[in-house]
């Protein structure tokens, strides 16, 4: 029993696309993580791992979910060749991350929810939930705009 060469070629191309999108998604997750890191006191990894701060953890996790939703929607919406799809996904991902930063600044300036202060709290704060939902909402809005 042998594989049809057209099927094998399509399978190979799809595996390559999966690996390329997964690598790009990972890069965008890291960028998103470090954007949240800039807004938190100290190194975010240390605040999460050593201080076990639930506020920093929730904000980082919400940012990752948002980026994942954007990347997924971009992959779904892309009917282009692989390179064009990767470029579109990178651009949409960066736009979503920028949207999250703008939302954090707006909440800081207009409502007074300061991420640095929230991340000093040892118990999960209501303001953190609001910011986390905002991250996810920005991801969903960006994703739907892509589709």
Automatic annotation (TrEMBL):
It is a multi-pass membrane protein. InterPro entries: DUF350 (IPR007140). Keywords: Cell membrane, Membrane, Transmembrane, Transmembrane helix. It holds the Pfam family DUF350. The chain crosses the membrane at residues 15-36, 57-78, 90-115, 127-146. Its main location: membrane. Belongs to the UPF0719 family. This is Uncharacterized protein DUF350. The lineage of its organism: Bacteria, Bacillati, Actinomycetota, Actinomycetes, Streptosporangiales.
């Amino acid at each position: 029993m042998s594989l049809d060469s057209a099927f094998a070629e399509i399978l190979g191309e799809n595996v390559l696309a999966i690996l390329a999108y997964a690598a790009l998604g990972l890069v965008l997750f890291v960028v998103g993580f470090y954007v949240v890191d800039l807004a938190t006191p100290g190194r975010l990894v240390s605040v999460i791992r050593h201080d076990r701060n639930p506020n920093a953890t929730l904000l980082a996790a919400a940012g990752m979910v948002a980026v994942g939703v954007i990347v997924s929607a971009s992959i779904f919406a892309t009917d282009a060749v692989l390179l064009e799809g990767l470029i579109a996904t990178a651009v949409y991902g960066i736009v979503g991350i920028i949207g999250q930063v703008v939302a954090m600044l707006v909440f800081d300036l207009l409502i007074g929810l300061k991420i640095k202060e929230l991340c000093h709290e040892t118990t999960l704060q209501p303001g953190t939930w609001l910011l986390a939902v905002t991250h996810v909402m920005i991801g969903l809005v960006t994703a739907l705009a892509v589709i």
